[in-house]
What does this fold into?
Amino acid sequence: MQSHLNDRITRVGPGTPCGELLRRYWQPAALLDEFDPRFDPRMAGRPLKAVRLLGQDLVLFRDADGRWGLLDRDCPHRGADLAFARHEGDRIRCPFHGWAFDAEGRCLETPAEPSINGVGSTLCQRVRQRRYPTQVVAGVVWAWLGPEGQEPPALPALDAFVAPASHAFAFKGQWHCNWLQAVEVGIDPAHPSFLHRMLDDDPGADAYGRQFRSASVGDVDGQRWPMTRVMRERCSPEIRHEAVMPEISPGLTRITTLRLIDERHTHVRVTNSLFPQTFVIPLSDTLTITQWHVPVDDTHTYWYSFFTSFGAPLDHETMRAQRLPHLHLPDYVPRHGRHDDWGFSPEEQRTRTFLGLGEDDINRHDQWAVESMGPIQDRTREHLGTSDKVIMANRRMLLAAIDAVQAGGTPPMALDAAAAAALTGPATIDCIAPAQGWEAHWAAKARALREAAPWLAAPSPAAAAPA
It folds into this structure.
């Protein structure tokens, strides 16, 4: 890839082509957990925090009536930092000269301004701090940083967004890399056979991060085929990709990865790419992950994972307890990284895992892959192969979408309310299927999963078998 094209698809600040594209979508700004005093005691008396999103510095707060305010971080008076503002219930107040703002960005007071002939100053009536729309969905505060006055799109009715709180859980973490690196590792179907390869099939504990260790996808002719064996022994899969519900938008892509077991059986893994920065994957027989990759700036990214259960309710406390030890709060920064070689163990690499970065948190495997490329991958030096077909297709869509926005058009997945309501699902699966007729087999299993879900009355259109 040419250098100028790499810049075009990675730089996200205000005014950049890719930044203008990403501002056409709702972006996760914070977990609701970040305002819970159990995890950040400062929030007990002052629910306000600095947020950096798409290269912009903002301040996010909740007022005494529960309203959310997301404002530019620099005070419109003389630019002091509103991350240090006093929280006064229905307003925040800049400590520099006492200017006060509500959640809508209205300036309520400029107390240092003098009265003239007994009439108070009207300066505050002519001042407004830029305020960005917010909404709370699936345990996350979302922000829209698009052009002021433009109607935001609607979030699609993904399972992750419509599942009740009892069957949903949201978490996040930060990576020191560009957003597109994070997206591309998730939509790469070939990498689990290497990056997440286990050198034996010991099931171990059914613990956090052990997706490719503890899961078993079934038996074939009396032989056990856990995911570890499938990924290790069938490392050159057939990869297919196709648009799902293109009549709504071209931005939802089904990725089907086939690993032939023998002449009568194949392993089928169905995942999804949701343009521009999301993928949906199976975690277990009843659990999926919808992962959103949010640029902090050009060289830092937050991943937001939305866990959705189609079976039993989720134990939120246990899921937090499994994940929090791997991160530093309040910013959700990983404990391992380049500073300690991501915890690399040559001995483990020889005896337990292909990578040598532990097996209890495969998220760290992905972290190493994307961070080791550098803060912004130099794509002029890469050599793509057939197994990278999904990566190449996604880049073409990304460049076309950037061009569309530059020309005043609407990019994929910037949906109106009707289209968003119709875009449901999408279906994911890990299963062993007949080598002939695998399409009908996986689709039937996906429909059965949804039909058994206590909170879903019917299967989604996206779960239907491909035409």
